[in-house]
Amino acid sequence: MACQLPLLALLLTAASATAMQCSTSALPHNARVDCWPEIVGASESACHGRGCCWRDDSETVNDDSEPFCFYPADYPTYRLVGSRDSPAGGAELALNFRRDSGPSAWPPSRQIDQVSLSVSAHSDRVARIQIADRPDTSRWRVPLPLFGGDETGAAAQQFSVRTSSSAGERFFVQVTRNSDGWPLFDTGSSDGAFGPLLFADQFIQLSIGLSAQVIYGLGEHLGPFAKPLNQWKRFVLWNRDAEPNPDRNLYGSHNFLLAVGGGGRAFGIFLLNSNAQEVMLQPRLGQRATVTYRTIGGILDFFVFVGPTPKDVIQQYHELLGPPMMPPLWSLGYHLCRFGFGTLDRLKFIYERNVKINIPIDVMWSDADYMDGFKDWTVGAEKYSGFDTFIKQIHSQHRSVVVIVDPGIKNNSTGYLAYDLGLKMDIWMRTADNKSYIVGAVWPGDVLWPDFTHPNATLYWQRSSNEFLFKYPVDGLWIDMNEPSSFYQGSDTGCPKGNPLDFPPYVPHIIGYNILYQGTVCPSARQYLGSHYDLHNLYSYFEAKATWQVLRTRPDGQKDNRQRQFVLSRSTFPGIQRFAFHWTGDNNADWYNLRYSLSTILSFNLYGIVNTGTDVCGFNSATTEELCIRWTQLGAFYPFMRNHNSLGLPDQDPAAFSPIAQQIMRYHISLRYAFLPYMYTEFYRATANGSTVARSLMEEFPNDEETWLIDDQFMFGPALMICPVTVEGAVDRQVYFPPSARWFDVHAQYFAEVTPKGLQTVPAPLENIPLYIRGGHVIPMQDPGNDTYHQKLLQPFLLIVAPDADGLASGSLFWDRNGVDDLSLGNYQLMEFSASKGSLSSRLVHQFPIGVQMQLFGLQVLGVATKPANVIVNGRKRQFMYSNGWLSVSNLVGVDLKSPLRASWN
Predict the structure, then answer these.
(1) What is the per-residue pLDDT across 125-148, written as a single tens digit (0 to 9) for each?
(2) Residue 46 and residue 197: Cα distance in Å, rounded?
(3) CB-based contacts of 659, cutoff 8 Å, min separation 6
(4) Are 332 and 680 in contact (CB under 8 A)?
(5) Is 676 helix (H, G, I), strand (E, B) or coil?
(6) Residue 612: strand pairing partners
(7) What Rg value do the Cα atoms of the chain yield, rounded?
(8) Does domain 78-321 bear CATH number 1.10.8.60?
(9) CATH class of this structure's domain 775-906
(10) Does the annotation count 480 as an active-site position?
């Protein structure tokens, strides 16, 4: 008995210490990191088996999502054992850590005992933090090109780093901004405040403290733009073909967050990881929230963006991944599509009836109806006979055609070029044992999947499409079902039983009862660069790159290889903006999807995929006339505007509705065309400067906390504020007017100034969308045409000058030769406008190398306090009209914007 007393005392002491670490006072609710993230299986005994704490039944909780099982503050983690040589690339810190002995949430055989930490300056404003296993072993790393690196700027870096410094010290890393000492990335120090670092073979977890009041980003999800920091919320990233609904992982994975705190100070964090992953947000404790990252593969490769403004963070992120493609001008017009035209005659009928009633339109699309048996690069001989002639007809009218292409190639179809060539070039994805090709199922039936990471994949895609593109010279390609989506679960024979890639020990909370391969290919499938387990979220990236290259080198002789290409992709991953645009998938025709379509578009602008849109009027289920009107009004200010709906549903093109609805839709589509010079310029800015196109009020007014949660009104560029109606039957709505700006009502007589600021109720009859111009800006416009080609060629320009409270305004105009040339060719004109009290001038920044007409027809100045005595434009007195602060000068014959402009009114 005497020999047992010390042991009993030791056990009692340990139990007491554990209880202390698990108590509410030692670890507040908001700081508790989930030790049982699985959907099922949690129990008090199982939790204690992991060495974790079980929530006491007597504790009061405010959120049912708070974990029952959580890590104690002293849970075993990694401790510093020494430094190592800095790796290539100038890492400032390179440290090794070893895991404590003790309980583990994962089997010891899967636990990685040694990890390394590297911290480097990617540039003076971007810190890179890499946490991996030992340098002498190899784990999956995302093969994504990165840009904007500047080793020379490291000496002037705008951030500081602290890490573990003494042998045996608990793992931690902290990045702070030098200008204000603001902590941007903080894993906690020796107190373990944010939970332990876990690094197992198929489970990696790190929690950080986030000093912010609101965050944005974290993937493609349907719901509010701002992410909650007042509740427990999980965001899952695993590309999936699924109708957009709340709390689902959808088509794209973008693990980037923009954090905003007091005074509008901002920073950003990006995790470069392509495996299935999730981010858990926990409520704030004071100014700090806990954010937990989990992934089931690869390494933790973080980039921390210093900011300090939201615009700075966005620019730094866009610079890292490369600029978005500049879209061709025609693609900014109105697009019309549906799944279920059925025949070419029906497609032509829909097109012609909309042209007949003067609906501006630039692009006709064909979903999979046009194919022969849903096979890529084919045309149905009966239903779409004469498709080539129709394309020529559309082109003769200076409009465009886009068709869909799915990645799955019909299996066992000898005599079909895309199949035969794939066999010959051996570019298909393979089974886990590498002995055969993996078989999926999509619209054609059983299919094989091109491995777009294969060195010959682009050549295969080109050779497969050459004959089709020569005969049917479409203007763009729409790549769909590219998550990749499959009607089989994994393959025609399932997935190999017991394979840890198909049945990992932990699966993030994805759609499908935690089955990683549901609706897609077996993760164990083999690709040239590795397993599909690692490459799944990257599939669309590599397909988009190959498809862009196909259009770049097309054989029809009608396209210069230095012209801009149009590729639209459903699935996305960071960096895809260099090759493709995006639409938000198979949305529902309902008011909820209308309301939150805007949040998704704002999020994708953060991610750099600025040319994003939603199926106007809804894709699934039948729309209503009122819903379609309101959606068309909002869609007129989406970066990408396409009306599209599904098989078996009533038509929803504008001509399908009543004459009153047609009139309202025509007006708002025409309004888009009228603002096209301004919109086009904003796309140029996004490409040249890394800015957004559609943006939240928060981005423009970060110091105004009232703007932080607003996502039912938005800005297009810095000068237009759009306030859609998203409630059925509403004829007015509340609009927030940031008091720091001056606002003018586009629909009011004489562009009347909005005098009361803050939250106001404004009229919103069915005929109009509330639309406002922000003071301080010069907006270029044109009379709208029925297509971009003729509008660009024939319509002169109008400049709207909207001064701020000090009488100042500025703006710019990008215009080019034909709307499709690469910017590198220099076939464009860029000018800047500057207005002060009573005058306007322009400055040429870049001039056309060849002549293009750019006539100025009119000038309108808003907020002019008194009627001027005269108006002089380029040295000549001009006739003008003045009423209620609105000054209008028209018939400016002979004023060419390619030359400097000088105007004054006094």
Answers:
(1) 999 999 999 777 789 999 999 999
(2) 21
(3) none
(4) yes
(5) helix
(6) 582
(7) 29
(8) no
(9) mainly beta
(10) yes
Domain 329-683 and domain 775-906, same fold? Reply is no
| Domain 329-683 annotated CATH 3.20.20.80 | yes
Cα–Cα dist 792/853, whole Å: 9
Distance between start and end Cα atoms, the chain: 105
The predicted structure's pLDDT at residue 556: 58
- Strand pairing category for 159-163 and 173-177: antiparallel
What pairing do the DSSP bridges indicate for beta strands 856-861 and 581-583?
unpaired
Say if residues 549 and 515 touch (Cβ distance below 8 Å). Answer: no
Whole-number Å distance between alpha carbons of 480 and 15: 56
Token pair 């895809």: residue: 576
- pLDDT band for position 656 (cuts 50, 70, 90): very high
Catalytic-residue membership of 382: no
By CB neighbour count within 10 A (0-12 exposed, 13-18 middle, 19+ buried), where does 60 fall?
A: exposed
Burial class (CB in 10 A: 0-12, 13-18, 19+), 477: buried
- Number of Cα atoms under 13 Å in the Cβ half of residue 663: 6
| Euclidean distance between CA atoms 382 and 90, whole angstroms | 63
> How high does pLDDT run on average in the chain?
93
Q: Record the pTM.
A: 0.95
Tokens of 700: 């423009």
Determine the pLDDT at residue 153: 56
pLDDT at position 7 over 50: no
Q: CA quadruple 518, 523, 528, 529: dihedral positive or negative? A: positive
The predicted model gives 34-58 an average pLDDT of: 91
Question: Which contacts qualify for 881-889: CB closer than 8 Å, 24 or more apart?
Answer: 883/750, 884/749, 884/750, 884/752, 885/750, 885/752, 885/753, 886/750, 886/751, 886/860, 886/861, 886/862, 887/860, 887/861, 887/862, 888/858, 888/859, 888/860, 889/858, 889/859, 889/860
Q: Cα separation of 312 and 7, whole Å? A: 59
Select which of 480, 543, 753, 821 is catalytic.
480
Nearest in space to 766 (alpha carbons), one of 733, 800, 722: 733
Q: Indicate the helix (H) or strand (E) that contains 466.
A: helix 457-471
Q: What is the CB neighbour count within 10 angstroms for residue 281? A: 22
Question: Do residues 701 and 665 touch, judged by C-beta distance below 8 A?
Answer: no
DSSP state for residue 672 in the 8-state scheme: H
- What count of Cα atoms within 13 Å lies in the side-chain half-sphere of residue 263? 7
Residues 137 and 318 sit within 8 Å (Cβ to Cβ):
no
Instruction: In whole angstroms, give the CA distance from residue 2 to residue 289.
Output: 49
CA distances from 259 to 124, 207, 220, 238, 256 (A): 19, 16, 17, 23, 10
Name the active-site residue from 376, 483, 543, 651. Answer: 483
d(CA 432, CA 490): 11
Mean pLDDT of 815-827: 92
The domain segmentation of the chain, as residue ranges, is: 78-321, 329-683, 775-906
Query: Is it the case that residue 217 has pLDDT exceeding 70?
Result: yes
> Are the CB atoms for 519 and 484 separated by under 8 Å?
no
Angstrom distance (rounded) from CA 265 to CA 730: 36
Residue type, 255: N
Three-class SS of 266-328: EEEEEECCCCCEEEEECCCECCEEEEEEEECCCCEEEEEECCCCHHHHHHHHHHHHCCCCCCC
Per-residue DSSP letter, 213: S
